[in-house]
Amino acid sequence: MDEIQTLYPEAYRICQQFAIDQNRMEEIIHRMTREMTMGLAKDTHPRATMKCFVTYVQDLPTGRERGNYLALDLGGTNFRVLLVNLESESTVHIDGQTYGISKSVMEGPGIKLFDFIAQCLSDFCKDHKLESANLPLGFTFSFPCKQVGIDNGTLVAWTKGFKSEGVVNKNVVELLRDAIARRGDLKVKVVAILNDTTGTLMSCAFHKPNCKIGMIVGTGSNACYVEKTSNVEMLPGYQTSQKPYMIINCEWGAFGDNGVLDFIRTRYDIEVDNFSINPKKQVYEKCISGMYMGELVRNIIVELMDKDVLFKGVKSKGLHERGKFETRFITEIESDEPGRFRNAAMVMDSLGIRTSNEKDLMCLRYICETVSTRSAKLAACGLVCLIRKMNVKDLSVGIDGSVYRFHPHYHRLLMENMNLLLNGTVRYELVLSEDGSGRGAALIAAVCARD
Ligand code: BGC
């Protein structure tokens, strides 16, 4: 780091703007707690940025759920259809198919999107001879949804790369059922709609009964947690509910949409936001998740190249193009052994920047580390906020998403920062949750079938 400061003072100065010290982390937690409280309470919910949606999932799995279920997973870069067989607590078979979603489907009319989903489901069922099996299906739909029941969710806004028209304000379960009915070639029972965070929590809880949080750091970012039903004012009859707990989908990506995070945002964050398809929305998510990390790094590099500080004399137009620096490059660059820059050189080469200047590559890595460290710090603030809100002293946190899964240091960075904030007061474990969107959807479908 000293070397960066001496050799690349300009880069150092930029990266300093991304630093968040413990005081600021505590301030973020404080503000997030306030926003959550607003989301949960009936009076303030309509103007809250963090909606804290009721999921209608009130039971965690017992580990005794069995049977065959279908799951649909829409929300990341791909769409998936899965057949989940819960055979025993230790044996879960998942057979799945991934389908790429074209930009025209992601951004076109909603009917086209749902016809595409139904088409994939139908092809999958035909391949597996399940057309008339009438299996229960869980729909993992990873966007902010206002639910009024386990199988009724209205899309509030698209996030990530989606902007399919005519879906916002509609019940997406109905859109799915209609699309299936239009085809008329298969029998399935759509029994539940869920967020990927809920699926992740359920999937983790199948093995770890003390799992109380599900978090995603992937294309987008979000978390859900187990709240006391008596605090869930948005649930009709919450005071007299028989069931003590409710999973709450925080939709923390929207934290900061009202300006409360401006004190930590940089020029680069604002630049990335301005050119996104949903400006001024999902502010916290844009500081954390995979859809934006690469773009933040790209903006910094381009500025330093334009100032002739980095990769001097190397001409590259490639990097000036938006989206060219993918978040997986950060993962690759940070996977280099200390003092080695093999991946870094390869990544830059693939972007048309041929260089063996190790100092430059060291600076590049420093920029990547800056962005991923800040992401992990912010995610750690979110987790600590939820842990303090629940006031639990021992828990597991189920986590999924490409950034957490593939970044070589993300897990360690999360732990370091959580340890700093929790200071030994809570025993916690961060667990990679295996396929929450598939297995979690099946578990919810199974839990629904149990009632
Ligand atoms: C969505 C959430 C989702 C998260 C992770 C966000 O953009 O709003 O519903 O859980 O991405 O996929």
Please specify the SSE layout and strand pairing.
Blueprint: H1 2-7, H2 9-16, H3 22-40, E1 53-54, E2 67-74, E3 78-86, E4 92-100, H4 103-107, H5 110-127, E5 135-141, E6 145-149, E7 152-155, H6 172-183, E8 188-194, H7 196-205, E9 211-217, E10 221-228, E11 245-249, H8 267-274, H9 283-288, H10 290-306, H11 327-334, H12 342-350, H13 358-390, E12 394-400, H14 402-406, H15 410-422, E13 427-432, H16 436-450
Parallel strand pairs: 2-5, 5-8, 9-12, 12-13
Antiparallel strand pairs: 1-11, 2-3, 3-4, 6-7, 9-10, 10-11
Helix pairs in contact: 3-13, 5-6, 7-16, 8-10, 10-11, 10-13, 11-12, 13-15
Residues 75, 142-144, 159-160, 195-197, 216, 218, 220-222, 251, 253, 285 line the site of beta-D-glucopyranose.
Pfam family, one: Hexokinase_2
Pathway: Carbohydrate metabolism; hexose metabolism; Carbohydrate degradation; glycolysis; D-glyceraldehyde 3-phosphate and glycerone phosphate from D-glucose: step 1/4
Domain Hexokinase C-terminal: 212-447
Structural summary, described in words:
It is an enzyme of class 2 (transferase). Catalyzes the phosphorylation of various hexoses to hexose 6-phosphate. By secondary structure, this protein is an alpha/beta fold. Helix content is 43%, strand content 19%. The chain has a domain at 54-205 and 434-446: Nucleotidyltransferase, domain 5 (2-Layer Sandwich). It has 16 helices and 13 strands. The chain has a six-stranded mixed sheet, with helices on both faces. Strands 4-3-2-5-8 form a five-stranded mixed sheet, sandwiched between helices. The chain has a two-stranded antiparallel sheet with strand order 6-7. It is globular and about 65 Å long. It binds beta-D-glucopyranose. Beta-D-glucopyranose (BGC) binds at residues 75, 142-144, 159-160, 195-197, 216, 218, 220-222, 251, 253, 285.
